[in-house]
Specification:
two-stranded parallel ribbon, DNA polymerase, domain 1, 10 helices, 2 domains, TIM Barrel, alpha/beta, binds S-adenosyl-L-homocysteine
């Protein structure tokens, strides 16, 4: 069976014409899936029954169902548990900001990167998500809320650059005029630092934002928190990122989760200033979110403010991320593999 939700319009046109149908039918079907957010052939009222029957024998629309929803009483953040056609599940988060509505999607079921502070990696990687399954999280949320999604961040479960081909396909389809038409500039992909894939991404000529999960100012500390740092040294990752941004793109974004007594010391702040010297960048500080299994504690507000001040004194732009959805375990690093029954 072919998954229609992951097919580009030219691919879909190929399939439709192979069934001896007119090419304009492909565009109609594409619009049903990617603009009108249909999840079944029945909804496609302008498509002849014979074509719908022929399609349903060969293909399916590989988008997920919503199987649970939690809404934060604190800030209205909504966390969705989606179930994919094979029964696997992943979580996505909808957040309301002043400048619009952002959806944070998962790119894999589980994750194999092993970052020590993150819940999403505790059970390892089950599988990659397809482009249609990534799109389907956004479509499902937009259908549910009835509100247009303006920004997408690929910061849920999974390492997006470890699912490279599906990710690139997903971005092209998401920004497609015949689909939701979300500007590439409103799409952010966060990576733990797969240097070769960052280099490859440059050649795709996409205008998306890349954020690097930095979390430490030197290789030694980074290696102790993020196994991927043993493979790619910071210098290599920063080189790849600087190259990625060299063609008219905007400033680099770094995420830095503050862990009490581990990476939040005055010395770390000093090393970070030296590391980022001369780079046009933004550092997003995130007081580490509690994950039962990790034993890490967040930095106090006062210490986080002092860390921020030190960076600012060196001319670095810094924000402390407002953590949304913590009360529903929907904040960074709190998403995990769950099943429909809610068990971990
Ligand atoms: N794999 C990608 C994207 C997913 S995680 C990446 O590593 O960037 C999104 C962000 O949340 C990353 O910066 C990640 O390091 C961070 N994160 C993970 N666990 C966290 C936690 N417990 N508290 C705060 N941030 C966390």
């Amino acid at each position: 069976m072919t998954d229609l939700a992951s097919m580009t319009l030219p691919e879909l046109t190929g399939l439709i014409t192979s069934l001896q149908e007119k090419p304009y039918r492909a565009r109609q079907i594409y619009e049903w899936i990617h603009k009108k957010l249909a999840v079944s052939f029945e909804e496609m009222t302008n498509i002849p029954g014979t074509l719908k029957k022929a399609l349903s024998e060969r293909a399916f629309i590989g988008v997920p169902d919503i199987c649970a929803l939690q809404v934060s009483a604190a800030d209205g953040t909504r966390k969705y548990l989606f179930r994919f056609p094979d029964g696997e599940c992943a979580e996505s988060v909808w957040m309301e900001y002043r400048h619009g509505h952002t959806v944070c999607i998962s790119s894999q079921v589980g994750c194999r990167m092993g970052c020590r502070f993150c819940a999403s990696t505790l059970l390892g990687l089950t599988r990659n998500l397809t482009a249609g399954e990534m799109l389907g999280q956004i479509y499902g949320i937009q259908r549910d809320t009835g509100i247009r999604v303006s920004n997408v961040v690929v910061m849920g479960t999974g390492e997006p650059l470890d699912n490279y081909d599906n990710l690139v396909r997903f971005i092209r389809m998401l920004s497609d005029q015949d689909g939701l038409n979300i500007s590439e500039r409103n799409i952010t992909v966060s990576t733990c630092g797969l240097a070769p894939q960052i280099r490859r991404l440059k050649d795709e000529k996409l205008m998306i934002n890349l954020a690097l999960s930095l979390h430490a100012p030197n290789d030694e500390l980074r290696k102790s928190l993020m196994p991927i740092a043993r493979r790619y040294a910071l210098s290599e990752v920063l080189d790849a990122l600087t190259d990625y941004y060299s063609e008219g793109r905007r400033r680099l974004t770094f995420e830095y989760s503050l862990i009490r007594g581990v990476n939040d010391t005055d010395r770390c702040a000093g090393e970070l200033c030296a590391l980022l010297k001369g780079l046009n960048c933004l550092v997003n500080l995130i007081p580490v979110n509690p994950v039962r299994e990790t034993g890490f504690c967040e930095t106090s507000r006062a210490d986080a403010a002092a860390f921020k001040k030190k960076l600012e004194n060196h001319g670095i732009h810094v924000t402390i991320r407002r953590e949304m959805g913590r009360d529903i375990d929907g904040a960074c690093g709190q998403l995990r593999k769950r099943h429909a029954d809610g068990a971990v």
